[in-house]
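ok here's the first one, seq then struct tokens
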Amino acid sequence: MMDKVRDWFGFGPMTQGMGGHGHDHGEGGHGHTHGVIDPTIATTTRGIWAIKWSFVVLAITAALQLVVVFLSGSVALLADTIHNVGDAVTAIPLWVAFMLARRKPSKTFTYGLGRVEDLAGILIVLIILFSAIVAGYEAIDRLINPQPIAFLGWVAIAGIIGFLGNEAVAVFRIRVGREINSAALIADGYHARTDGFTSLAVVLGAIGVWLGFPLADPIIGLLITVAIFAIVWQSSKAVLTRMLDGVELGIVDEIHHAAEHVSGIERVQSVQARWIGHRLHADVAISVADAATAKDVMGVTEALKEELFAHLPALAEANVRLESSAGSAATGTEPSHSHGHHAPEPFKVDCDLAAGTLEIVDTPAGERMRLTIDRHADDLMATVIIDRPGGPETLRLEPIADNHHRLESTVAPAEPHEFQARLVLAAKGREQVLPFKMVEPEGHHH
């Protein structure tokens, strides 16, 4: 019996063990925020469908309550109606974001329009804040200037309707959440169940007024207003965190955890992640063994990407780059070269996978190996392997600021800049190896 009661409130055994990997994937402990839809819900069509119908049920509930508010003048019911409206409009930024996210990226909005959800979230937080201020003002005014409440029976019925509406949403979200294995949607369902008790508080207020305590209604209204202000505070933090490229603490830990599943990674040098709408973008720097071949590096990179997409359902893009074990590029301690730039002659690249120029260039961070591409195959990956007396030096070339026509190493090629090397190009399961030689100009000595 106690297990059933605990499960009804969200603490029972039925709410545990939703992850299929035997460890937490960062989906637990979601806060009940308004104006931000949890991205793990939005990763499936079924989850979006659940949110839409939740919006419909709560909107109908709030509309019925609003009619009674105008008839009765109950500020407790007004506050609860505002609370239910806040629950309902949570679905609006999701709808707006998905409608605009369908538009293809442009030269101006190169990442698309996913961030419109952040703007919608702020708008909704401001609307709820304004509504809370109105509800609070009405409750305080009613405490100072008591007024009789009409239709007490209807007020109580409206409170019960609010409870039933929230309970219907709770059952619906929990059921769908279990179907799609979404801990976030299940948590949202239990939060809706908890919100139903604010509606029952309206019933208590009506009973208090009926028993001869007229201040029960504004006192209940004031308590619900405090709860709405708490929602505003929590939601504003969530929205502003997203706008400032912040992520939940568990996401970075989950990326490190995903890397633990990949053999060949010596160390995760740095992790960066940010939300663009409902989609997560991650940038991970790793180091591998110095003796690793280009094929080994590509295998490790692809394996890590697979683990990241498996661990983070909302992940849209994962950029994995290679750094030296010392992590000089990650820490910004790249040694500067005091000598002038005397780069070897560029190597002209011309093959089926790409055409362009490979050269050593000076950048604000130091010398880098850069491949400027005039033509390339889709999903091109480039690696330079330099033959050194102590073993091969591997430089992975990554897009600069997501510019796939300019690939650059994250660290400088070691001195001297006179060497035999190979440029390894790979795309769509094909690989081409282009040997080349770089010779320093005469008179350039170290």
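and now the second one, same deal
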Amino acid sequence: MSQTPYRQVPCPQCGTLSEWRPENKWRPFCCERCKLIDLGSWADESYKVPVQEPDQGSIDSPDQNG
């Protein structure tokens, strides 16, 4: 019985290819260091999810249904 080949994915932090498999406890990162760097970027708010502010006119006007 042959061993199942695992997919290689680039680490989101450094780009090093690593296998996507259960034994890789840092996936999708290649190592703990890259995972912690990414976590730190979220913690210091270097990454932000874009938010679209609602139109002020729609907030101030009453709902037409009630």
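notes on #2: The beta strands are 8-10, 17-19. The chain has a mean pLDDT of 84.
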